[in-house]
């Protein structure tokens, strides 16, 4: 079976906590740069939120996701309303590799 470009979206379309199918109408695109898009979706059932990076390359599309307790607004605030930068994307990749640290450090006032 040839790779379905949508299979990774489907892979991320279930809540990792309660396995409820995400309502893709809740999907928000928080930023994009080059061939990468940062998306946010929350579970209608248990409110678990997932940040995902979709990367589009000549080899196809990959998706990496991480559960977050930030709201979309907090994610955007932490980015000071700037578009997502390549540096941010690298940070997220590091986060995903390490699997634990806060994705975006909260501001200290
Ligand atoms: Zn859920």
Helix/strand layout:
Layout: H1 7-11, E1 28-33, E2 36-42, E3 49-57, E4 60-68, H2 72-78, H3 86-98
Antiparallel strand pairs: 1-2, 2-3, 3-4
The chain binds zinc ion.
Zinc ion (ZN) binds at residues 15, 17-18, 20, 43, 45-46, 48.
Structure write-up:
With 109 residues, this protein is α+β, with helices and mostly antiparallel strands. The chain has one domain (7-98). The protein has helices at 7-11, 72-78, 86-98, and strands spanning 28-33, 36-42, 49-57, 60-68. It has a four-stranded antiparallel β-sheet with strand order 1-2-3-4, covered by helices on one side. A hairpin with a 2-residue loop joins strand 1 (28-33) and strand 2. The termini are far apart. Mean pLDDT is 73; it is low at 7-11 and 101-105. The site of zinc ion has 8 residues, from loops.
Tell me roughly what share of residues is in helical segments. Answer: 10-25%
Number of helices: 3
Count structural domains. Answer: 1
Q: For the terminal residues, how far apart are their CA atoms?
A: 53 Å
Pattern of helices and strands: HEEEEHH
- Overall 3D form: globular
Tell me the total number of β-strands: 4
Q: Tell me the β content.
A: 25-35%
Mean pLDDT: 73
Radius of gyration: 14 Å
Structural class: alpha+beta
Strand order of the largest sheet: 1-2-3-4
Unreliable residue runs = 7-11, 101-105
State the major sheet. Answer: 4 strands, antiparallel
Q: Which small compounds were modeled alongside the protein?
A: zinc ion
Oligomeric state of the chains present here? single chain
């Amino acid at each position: 079976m040839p790779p379905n470009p949508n299979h990774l979206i489907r892979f991320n379309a279930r809540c990792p906590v309660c396995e409820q199918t995400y309502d893709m109408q809740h999907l928000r695109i928080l930023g994009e740069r080059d061939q990468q898009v940062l998306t946010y979706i929350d579970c209608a059932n248990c409110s678990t939120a997932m940040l995902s990076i979709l990367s589009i390359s000549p080899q196809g599309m990959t998706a990496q996701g991480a559960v977050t307790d930030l709201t979309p607004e907090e994610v955007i605030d932490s980015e000071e309303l700037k578009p997502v930068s390549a540096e941010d994307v690298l940070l997220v990749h590091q986060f995903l590799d390490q699997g634990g640290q806060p994705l975006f450090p909260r501001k200290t006032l």
